[in-house]
Amino acid sequence: MADQKASTSIEAVESGLAAQGYIASRQIATAVYLSQQIEKPILVEGPAGVGKTELAKAIAAWRGKKMIRLQCYEGLDEAKALYEWKYAKQLLYTQILKDKLGEVLGGAQTLHAALAQLHDFGDVFFSKEFVEPRPLLQALEQPGGCVLLIDEIDKSDAEFESLLLEILSDFQVTIPELGTVSAITPPTVILTSNSERDLGDALKRRCLHLHIGFPEQRLEERIVESRVPAISQTLRRQMVGFIHEIRSLDLKKLPSVSETIDWARVLVLLQASELDTEIVKDTLNVLLKYEADIEAASPQITTFIAKAARSNVFG
Amino acid sequence: MRENLHRFFRAARGAGVHVSPAESIDAMRAVAQVGLTDRAILRDALLLTLAKSQDEKLALGDCFDLFFSPPEPPQDQTVSDDKEQASQDPDQSPSSHSENEASGGEPQEGLGPLAQMLLSQDRNAIQAAMANASGAASLSDIRYSTQRGIFSSRILDAMGLQRLHDDLDELTATNPALAERLRTALDALREAVRDTVSQGLALYAREEAENLRNEILRNAPLARIERRQVAEMRALIRQIARRLRERYSKPRKRQRRGHLDVRRTLRRNAAWGGVPFLTAWKRKHRDRPKIVALCDVSGSVAQVSDFFLLLIHSLHEVVDDVHSFAFSSHLIEVSEILEKKSPEDAMAEIMSKVGFGSSDYGSSLVDFEHDFMSTLTPQTTVIVLGDARSNNLDPRADILRRISERSKRLVWLNPEGRLAWGFGDSEMPRYATFCSVVRQCATAQQLERAVSDIVATYQ
Questions:
Q1: With bands split at pLDDT 50, 70 and 90, how would you rate the model's confidence at B89?
Q2: Count of A–B CB contacts within 8 Å?
Q3: Using a CB-CB distance cutoff of 8 angstroms, which residues of chain B are in contact with residue A1?
């Protein structure tokens, strides 16, 4: 039955990503599966450090495809994202070919004849050789398909979004001088956003919208387990429990998954066997990136450790 | 199933999620891929394709749960695992280990189908009949809570209430006990129908009701708004601010590609003897509005000023800088108070400083000229909000003329209707000669238009 197939395929996605060290929640796996089935890009939103970019990397590694990354920033335009004419090369060639041009046109008697001859050359200087493909065009030209990561789309200007629309819906771009370039194999497109500004409806409509929040405790433990295998089970439970307590505070920047992993590595390096106030105080700057946050969290450390330890016993 | 999905899309729209036809097609394709057996996956798939923000996801998630868990059918039987069936067809769930035997009694001969159904306590059948009847009564068209009664009776009629009443009459004569049971069952059925209608209302009518309320609120005179509506109005003003931000905060510098900046190009390429290896293109710069707002906070206009200041100060992305001044008998600068405090506190503080006096436009304008004339630049739009009723004191229109000369535009917003201008102690006609624009501004809608026009002149 088709339905049965779907849920097994979603599990396959989950285990495939897990093999690359990316522990995906059910929702993420469903999104990845659907994006492949109905050929739609995924727009991933969520706080910094929950693994939005990692997801694209994991998909690329799992499917054995090349990953092409386009980092967005303010002022990014089509010349840097899509294609650019190699202007200097064009100019250089015209300079070099000056004499040749004279030879070719030498036979022409009148200006009109020369012009007609020139037309016969066609648009030599606006041909494929003079196009410098930028990430978006590169992605379309990959014969085996690829994973195209458009990172932090919210940092780019609103005009740039419109530029993406054609690529996202039809997997093609139109270069006025060359015509329309369609993808050989439609790439898997992942867009990430930190919700710095609201994206346009037109862009959102063309994507599956996936929101990755902070993971549940179980899931986060599995993530730590896969990323930092050296850590002991008790410590892992304790630290993840502790981080979940920290996230309940009202902080400027909550620690996200990447901070959890960093912290786990630090704890392993320090050869800690379990959490205590001393070691947490010393390493809190790995988790919290603002002085004010550290100050706000410091008085709570002992309580949180106790809570994390308790939940450990019952959980 | 397709029918159900369509109804779900309508419900989603009711919940405030914008489901365009293209998105519904996507959702259909996604559902075709994942199938219907696993409810969690179905939910994920619909959330992925339809909802486009975190808020929408929450709303749609609630909507999904509400939609796929219909109210309890009449009999009070144990609720059983309704998961699987629910995802297949919401209308026929929840399934039950139907305890058909309950309180015995085979369906009586000669009774209508509804009566038989009620007597045999067939939950699924009743549920299905109710769903069909709500379809026939087009429950998804319900818009207002006042329509609950009519939809309930329509559904009951469609289920065959008429026939049931006939049966009841007959049974009362022949078999009073059975009639009693039927009557109880009917009461339970009425309740279930009422629940269904309430659910329908919650699903389909939310957006409509909100729109209606907002529409009324938008056109209500700000000055005479009731206390309980103030919070709603603030929310509405914030909404308006968001809309204006979205419309006008778009790029400030627009490149004019295609227009070569010859001077910069030559300068850049001087090293290559003027051969233009690097090109420079012209850009167009746009100013963001600078606003100086003078708000009358005397009794008659205070409420309008409050909302106006709230609106102007939530436009940071659109407006470069705002200087706000409040006055009744004298004038003070209030920008800082408004920036630092919450709207409620700020207004309370302003009121305690200058509020509730009788307005004196003349001396307030003198205060402004004396202390703050330097805030005006040729890019500034000056907005005066007030009813221009100066209690027959000297209006000092000459100061207003000087303000007008120093600024880009002078806009006067008056909460009073045009007909009242110039009557009694209103100095409006005298002031109006020096204003670029004078307009009435009594409701949220007029406020939005006025501010929108002011911002638009800078685009």
A1: very low
A2: 86
A3: 35, 37
Cα of B52 to nearest chain A Cα, Å:
6
Once rounded to an integer, what is the mean pLDDT over residues B355-371? 86
Q: Is residue B216 part of a domain?
A: no
Nearest CA-CA partner of A147 in A137, A156, A139, A138: A139
pLDDT in tens, A188-245: 999 999 877 778 888 888 899 999 888 888 899 999 998 888 888 888 888 898 898 8
Give CA separation, A39 vs A34, A97, A181, B374, in Å: 8, 46, 18, 60
Minimum CA–CA partner of B25 in chain A: A38
Residues of A in CB contact (< 8 Å) with B are: 1-4, 6-7, 10, 26-27, 30-31, 33-34, 37-38, 40, 45, 87-88, 91, 157-159, 198, 201, 204-205, 208-211
Comparing CB atoms, the residue among A31, A40, A88 nearest residue B277 is A88
For chain A, the residue count is 315
Q: Are B279 and A87 in contact (CB < 8 Å)?
A: yes
Residues B25 and B120 reside in one and the same domain: yes
Structurally, how many domains does chain B consist of? 3
Reported as a pLDDT band with limits 50, 70 and 90, residue B106 is very low
Would you state the structure tokens that stand for residue A126, as one six-digit string? 């606006």
Same domain, B204 and B85: yes
Q: Which helix (H) or strand (E) holds A135?
A: helix A135-141
B352 and B266 in a common domain: no
Q: Give the start-end residues of each E strand in A86-229.
A: 131-133, 146-151, 172-175, 179-182, 188-193, 208-211
Q: May I ask the CATH architecture of the domain A2-71+145-161+187-211?
A: 3-Layer(aba) Sandwich (3.40)
**Domain shared by B278 and B351, yes or no:** no
**Domain housing B278:** 261-286
- Predicted ipTM of the assembly: 0.80
Do B269 and B139 share a domain, yes or no? Answer: no
B33 to chain A, minimum CA–CA distance in Å?
Answer: 7
Q: Is residue B138 situated within a structural domain? A: yes
Look at residue B361 and tell me if it is in a domain: yes
Torsion on CA atoms A75, A80, A85, A88, rounded to nearest 10: 80
Distance from CA of B333 to the nearest CA of A (A): 32
In a domain, B81, yes or no: yes
Q: Do residues B54 and B202 both lie within one domain?
A: yes
B223 contacts B301 by C-beta, under 8 angstroms: yes
